[in-house]
């Protein structure tokens, strides 16, 4: 029976006995039942996760990693399992995760040079007062949201913001004390992600070269460089992507016009809610040398959903996409981390404003097109 489970696990994970692997991730979880699905995915990827079927109390992944990155481990009946999960840094080599409690609770890492740093972070979430308070507040906020108690929710959010600031101080001190650890890159990227790119650059520069020569360090540097390249007053970086009919469309094709580059997706509820305001602005100024170029972050195989959303929302302008979700080449070039997002360009292709919503968009268009 165990050999059968092993054969299935190898097939599911895409691993063969002849494949090259440079990384192993092993789990020893007493409550893990034989036959349970275990999924491993890169936090920054929208691709299909690796998967194995567990033995009694254990699992093992054999992987071929190019560099260190942040990963999410899920245990459950399908790839969207959310009941038991944990995330951690993983790089080529070996890492073991052991838990005394139910499945992934009280996870302890071993087998790598950075395992003790992962354990240090995990311990803080259970012992540091700010983390304990933040966890309790999070539960209260979820309950207030569930019962639609907006007054209580607003008060809790304000309190959470103050506690979160204390957590951030702890994280900054932790990074300061671990400049050579690749886990510090995970902390900067995930917990302390600065919106101010100059501040992020300063923090990144405090890490030793070995600590930032991984996917996380490279992504943060890309974000910094992209922010500089797409700052207000800079020429918008050119790109080419196919429209709804498969024809290539380039940003430079719109030179001479005021242009709104609009990042959205058919699955994005806030985007769909914002679309009426975008349509209103388009109709008001389309005869005044203004147009829109929408870049969709729709998923592979979702072309019909993309086209239907364009039709249903009345988006009568040019649309492009590579249907590659968050890996859309243009969104990565511009380092789009949430949608809706937009950039307003002048006729010379220079960025005039970004992330204009509702009345803000109309006011800005009225200002520049008067």
From TrEMBL:
<dbReference type="InterPro" id="IPR050553">
    <property type="entry name" value="Thioredoxin_ResA/DsbE_sf"/>
</dbReference>
<dbReference type="InterPro" id="IPR017937">
    <property type="entry name" value="Thioredoxin_CS"/>
</dbReference>
<keyword id="KW-0732">Signal</keyword>
<dbReference type="GO" id="GO:0017004">
    <property type="term" value="P:cytochrome complex assembly"/>
</dbReference>
<keyword id="KW-0201">Cytochrome c-type biogenesis</keyword>
<dbReference type="GO" id="GO:0030313">
    <property type="term" value="C:cell envelope"/>
</dbReference>
<feature type="signal peptide">
    <location>
        <begin position="1"/>
        <end position="21"/>
    </location>
</feature>
<keyword id="KW-0676">Redox-active center</keyword>
<dbReference type="GO" id="GO:0016491">
    <property type="term" value="F:oxidoreductase activity"/>
</dbReference>
<dbReference type="InterPro" id="IPR025380">
    <property type="entry name" value="DUF4369"/>
</dbReference>
<protein>
    <submittedName>
        <fullName>Peroxiredoxin</fullName>
    </submittedName>
</protein>
<dbReference type="Pfam" id="PF14289">
    <property type="entry name" value="DUF4369"/>
</dbReference>
<feature type="domain" description="Thioredoxin">
    <location>
        <begin position="230"/>
        <end position="370"/>
    </location>
</feature>
<dbReference type="Pfam" id="PF00578">
    <property type="entry name" value="AhpC-TSA"/>
</dbReference>
<dbReference type="InterPro" id="IPR000866">
    <property type="entry name" value="AhpC/TSA"/>
</dbReference>
<dbReference type="InterPro" id="IPR013766">
    <property type="entry name" value="Thioredoxin_domain"/>
</dbReference>
<dbReference type="GO" id="GO:0016209">
    <property type="term" value="F:antioxidant activity"/>
</dbReference>
<dbReference type="InterPro" id="IPR036249">
    <property type="entry name" value="Thioredoxin-like_sf"/>
</dbReference>
<keyword id="KW-1015">Disulfide bond</keyword>
């Amino acid at each position: 029976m165990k050999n059968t489970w092993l054969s299935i696990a190898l097939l599911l994970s895409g691993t063969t006995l002849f494949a090259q692997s440079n990384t192993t991730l092993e789990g020893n979880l007493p409550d893990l039942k034989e036959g349970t699905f275990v999924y491993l995915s890169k936090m920054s990827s929208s691709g299909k996760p690796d998967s194995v079927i567990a033995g009694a109390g254990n699992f093992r992944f054999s992987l071929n990693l190019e560099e260190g990155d942040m990963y999410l481990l899920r245990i459950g009946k399908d790839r969207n399992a959310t009941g038991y999960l944990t995330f951690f840094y993983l790089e080529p080599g070996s890492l073991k995760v052991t838990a005394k409690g139910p499945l992934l609770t009280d996870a302890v890492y071993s087998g790598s040079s950075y395992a003790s740093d992962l354990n240090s972070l995990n311990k803080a979430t259970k012992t540091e007062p700010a983390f304990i308070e933040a966890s309790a507040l999070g539960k209260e906020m979820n309950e207030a949201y569930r019962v639609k108690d907006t007054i209580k929710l607003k008060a809790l959010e304000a309190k959470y913001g103050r506690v979160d600031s204390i957590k951030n101080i702890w994280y900054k001190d932790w990074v300061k004390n671990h400049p050579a650890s690749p886990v510090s890159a995970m902390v900067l990227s995930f917990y302390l992600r600065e919106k101010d790119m100059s501040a992020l650059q300063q923090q990144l520069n405090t890490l030793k070269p070995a600590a930032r020569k991984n996917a996380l360090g490279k992504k943060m540097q890309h974000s910094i460089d992209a922010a500089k390249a797409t700052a207000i007053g800079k020429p918008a970086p050119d790109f080419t992507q196919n429209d709804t009919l498969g024809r290539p469309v380039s940003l430079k094709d719109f030179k001479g016009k005021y242009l709104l580059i609009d990042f959205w997706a058919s699955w994005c509820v806030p985007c769909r809610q914002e679309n009426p305001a975008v349509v209103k602005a388009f109709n008001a100024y389309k005869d005044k040398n203004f147009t829109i170029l929408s870049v969709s972050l729709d998923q592979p195989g979702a072309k019909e959903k993309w086209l239907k959303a364009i039709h249903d929302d009345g988006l009568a302008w040019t649309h492009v996409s590579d249907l590659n979700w968050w890996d859309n080449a243009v969104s990565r070039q511009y380092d789009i981390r949430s949608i809706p997002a937009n950039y307003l360009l002048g006729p010379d292709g220079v960025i005039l404003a970004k992330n204009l919503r509702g009345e803000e968009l109309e006011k800005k268009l009225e200002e520049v097109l008067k």
